[in-house]
Amino acid sequence: MTITEKYLQMILPTFAVTGDQRVDTKTVNGLIGYSFPCPFCQFLCETESAKNKRVAYLLPHKESFSWTFYCHRKKTLQCQTSRSFSNFLAIYNPSLFKKYQMEKYHSGTTGKGHNTADPKVVKKAKK
Ligand SMILES: [Zn+2]
After folding, report:
1. Ligand 1 centre and the CA of 85: distance in Å?
2. Distance 68 CA to ligand 1 centre (A)
3. Has residue 13 been placed in a domain?
4. pTM of the predicted structure, to 2 decimals
5. Beta-carbon neighbour count of residue 30 at 10 Å?
C-alpha cells in the first residue's frame, strides 16, 4: 500500500457523516475510485436526498497511484475545481495533511524529486 492509499483509506469513512450517507467504489479503467457526498457543498443543499447524493469523486490515476478529487455540484470555492489528492487533503483535513506530507518526505516520495540511493538525513544535534 502506498502512503497515498493509506491516507485515502483513513479519510474514506469520514465522507459518510450521517447514517444515510455512504461511500461507493467506482471502477475507472480497471482502477478503484470512489464516489461520496461532497464534504464541501452538501451543507448548502436543502433536502436530505440532495445532501446524501454522491456527487463527489476521487478518480484514480493510471500508474501514479494517486487520485483526483472532483465534485459534480461545484457549489463551494473548495470544490469548484478538481484537485490533486494532496491538495484536497490539505483543505479537507489540514492536520492529517501535515502527517501525510511528513510521511511522504521521510519516505522520499514527495513527488518533487526521485528517490536517491543515499538520501540526505538532516538530524538535529542533541544537546
Ligand atoms: Zn461540492
Report:
1. 15
2. 14
3. yes
4. 0.81
5. 7
